[in-house]
């Protein structure tokens, strides 16, 4: 059977259609589920193999990006989320969804209700909306191992994407192999400077996983480069659509787990 993916909806989320398409393209069975349906228990998170939180501006990103949705999840859906995670189901948050996962505490260390890192305002001081390069690294996300070493052209669309943690937590992230992708320059080296590093993220961190390898978060948008025609230079014939690595990896893993 096709793994069922819960594509979470809330006011202000606007990348849900692309995310739905990506999961469907790579063999999943996505369903749109509004957060109110989970709160009322008319739909239950335990009936899905994957929880996917799309990008956008949940609740207008009032206070700071992702804060209100994160608070809603921790306050009203904590038991459902804990059960989901304990059953080793998969979670992915993209852009605003990544911000939500960090503010719930699920990333980086799976401390639900406690923040250990943040995604701060871009060092550039403005919204970044363009393509950059990331490199897939060896990490706790074992289902991404087939893609380790790949360099991918990928879209970013965010104003608060700068990964930041205190030295102790940052070292733990690195030493525990929680970084699964970084911004890189034309030579494939971690991008320390703008514009290759679009937000000033520490250690060029673009995406991380939790210690179990089952929860992923990344600022770039893989769902926006699953078709060649989504790339701005697709007519030149020298680009590829490689954003499917996240969805292929998760769906293959969900089928056998």
How does the SSE layout of this entry go?
Layout: E1 4-9, H1 16-25, E2 29-34, H2 35-40, E3 50-53, H3 67-76, H4 78-86, E4 90-94, H5 96-104, E5 118-120, E6 128-136, E7 151-158, E8 162-164, H6 167-175, E9 179-183, E10 205-209, E11 215-218, H7 245-256
Parallel strand pairs: 1-2, 1-3, 3-4, 4-11
Antiparallel strand pairs: 5-8, 6-7, 6-9, 9-10, 10-11
Helix pairs in contact: 3-5
Kindly list the characteristics that best describe this protein.
257 residues; alpha/beta; Rossmann fold; nine-stranded mixed β-sheet; two-stranded antiparallel ribbon; 7 helices; 25% helix; globular
Explained architecture:
The protein is α/β, with parallel strands linked by helices. It has one domain: Rossmann fold (3-Layer(aba) Sandwich). Helix content is 25%, strand content 23%. The chain has seven helices and eleven strands. Strand 10 and strand 11 form a beta hairpin. Helix 3 crosses helix 5. The longest helix is centred in the last third of the chain and has 12 residues. The chain is globular and about 50 Å long. The chain starts with a strand and ends with a helix. 47% of the residues are buried.
Biggest sheet descriptor: 9 strands, mixed
Tally of extended strands?
Answer: 11
- CATH topology heading: Rossmann fold
CATH architecture: 3-Layer(aba) Sandwich
Estimated share of beta-strand residues: 15-25%
Shape: globular
Order of helices and strands, N to C? EHEHEHHEHEEEEHEEEH
In the residues, how many domains can be counted? 1
Q: What structural category arises from helix and sheet content?
A: alpha/beta
Helix content: 25-40%
Unreliable stretches: none
Distance between the ends:
12 Å
Spatial strand arrangement across the major sheet: 2-1-3-4-11-10-9-6-7
CATH homologous superfamily (4th level) name: Class I glutamine amidotransferase (GATase) domain
Q: Compute the CA-based radius of gyration.
A: 17 Å
The CATH class: Alpha Beta
Mean pLDDT metric = 97
Instruction: Supply the number of helical segments.
Output: 7
């Amino acid at each position: 059977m096709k793994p069922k993916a819960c594509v979470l909806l809330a006011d202000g989320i606007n990348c849900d259609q692309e995310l739905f398409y990506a999961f469907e393209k790579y063999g999943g069975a996505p369903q749109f589920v509004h957060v109110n349906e989970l709160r009322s228990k008319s739909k239950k998170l335990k009936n899905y193999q994957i929880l996917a939180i799309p990008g956008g501006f949940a609740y207008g990103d009032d206070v700071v990006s992702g804060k209100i949705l994160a608070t809603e999840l921790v306050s009203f859906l904590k038991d459902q989320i804990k059960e989901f995670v304990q059953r080793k189901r998969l979670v992915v948050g993209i852009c605003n969804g990544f911000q939500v996962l960090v503010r719930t505490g699920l990333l980086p260390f799976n401390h639900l209700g406690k923040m250990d890192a943040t995604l701060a305002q871009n060092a550039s001081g403005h919204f970044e909306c363009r393509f950059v390069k990331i490199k897939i690294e060896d990490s706790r996300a074992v289902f991404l191992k087939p893609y380790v070493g790949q360099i991918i052209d990928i879209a970013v669309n965010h104003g608060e994407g700068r990964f930041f943690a205190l030295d102790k937590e940052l070292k733990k992230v690195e030493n525990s192999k929680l970084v699964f992708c970084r911004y890189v320059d034309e030579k494939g080296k971690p991008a320390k400077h703008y514009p290759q590093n679009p937000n000033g993220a520490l250690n060029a961190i673009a995406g991380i996983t939790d210690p179990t390898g089952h929860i992923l978060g990344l600022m770039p948008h893989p769902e926006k480069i699953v078709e060649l025609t989504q790339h701005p230079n697709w007519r030149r014939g020298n680009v590829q659509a490689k954003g499917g690595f996240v969805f292929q990896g998760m769906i293959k893993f969900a089928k056998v787990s």
